[in-house]
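Input chain follows. Return structure tokens only.
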Amino acid sequence: MIELTRLNGNLLVVNSDLIQYAEASPDTTLTLVNGEKLVVRESCGEVINRTLACRARILGEAARNFPGGLVVSAAGSALRATAAQQAIKAQEELDVDMEAMVRRRRSEP
């Protein structure tokens, strides 16, 4: 869950796994997988940073709770430690793809 701010200043906690996409037009509008739209004060980049920090906390908790056995992927599935490197690489590739998408959106007229 990530904490965001509605335009009226009220705090809002969102399950970041339910965000389908975010767009700045000029306010940041989040579209959830169920089609609901949320308008927040934070930039798209800040939403991404908070989402990544949330996922890092989840992975950290999994590592503490399963030090030699399981790793939880960003999608929430449990993996054996031997597959942990593949999960980390896949998450890094996803992060790079997301950053490239944000850069492209910022450069569009």
